[in-house]
Every structure is written in structure tokens, then in C-alpha cells.
Amino acid sequence: MGYPCLYECEWVKGTTTKGRMVVIVDNNQWDNYEGQFNARLFRTGTGRWEHEDGDTYYGEWKHDKTNGQGKYTWPDGEIYEGQWQDGNKHGQGKYTYPNGETHEGQWQDNKPNGEGKRTFTDGTYEVGKWKDDNQIGVQQYFSKQGKHIENRTYEDHVLIKTEKII
């Protein structure tokens, strides 16, 4: 790691199994982790991590990175709950933005990619495909009551056509 660390661990037959790690990282801030470790003291299995700035993560780890199911919370109210791969949002998940909007669907490399649903603060929502956090092709737009209101067509990340549904 290269940073000063303090470990308090349980050992079974000479191998760490679970415990606590406190690390002093960049700008003299601390990270705290409580959970499972492997024999090389990498976070693995299930654990809870928090950073001095207020970021927290609770979920699955593999090879010292978030992998599997987990929930990450930022101090401004952002939340991602879903699947992770090698430290990135990847797979099915739900992201809540600070303003209350949500995006639920497929993620790849930390961005919405594939089928998804974006719910706006007024309760209306849009369903369709995303590529690198941008709508692509035809999106179906619904009222908060679930009535299909219009189809919206996006090209090169720009809304190019709106078709009202009668």
C-alpha cells in the first residue's frame, strides 16, 4: 500500500480472517475498514469501509477492491447500491443523485450502459438504453402515474425528436 497502517485482526492457524484496518492516506486523512481479510491482508469477503471525508461502503470485496454487491454513500447524498467489479459500478444497480433523481439499470465502468430507467424529481421517468451515461435511440417517457406520454429520440447524446403518444 505504501501508507501507514494499523491492523487489529483475528487469526486462525496463522492466517488473518477478519478485523480492522486504519490507514493514513493522501492529505493526512484516514480510511477505516472493518471486515474480512485474506492471508495477504487484502480486504476480501464482506466489510465496511469509511473515509474521513464521509464516503462509506458496505458490501463485498475481492483482492482489496469492491467486487460483488455493495452500497456506496457520499456525504452530499449520492448513493449507489448494486453490483461492483474491480472497484467500479458494474452490473445491475441503482444510483441516487444529490437532487433526488435516480438511475436504475445496467452499469459498466462506473457509467449507465445498457437498459435503464431514469426517474426525475417530479416523479416522471424515462426508460430506454444508455451509453456512457447518455441516452441513445428511442426513450419512452412516462408520467409519475405510469402513463406513456411520449417517445424521445436521442442521437449523439442530443434530443433530436419528440413524438407525443395519444
UniProtKB/TrEMBL annotation:
InterPro entries: MORN (IPR003409). Keywords: Repeat. It holds the Pfam family MORN. It comes from the Eukaryota. Coiled coil: none annotated. The keyword Nuclease does not apply. The keyword Hydrolase does not apply. GO terms for cellular component: cytosol. This is MORN repeat protein. It comes from Halteria grandinella.
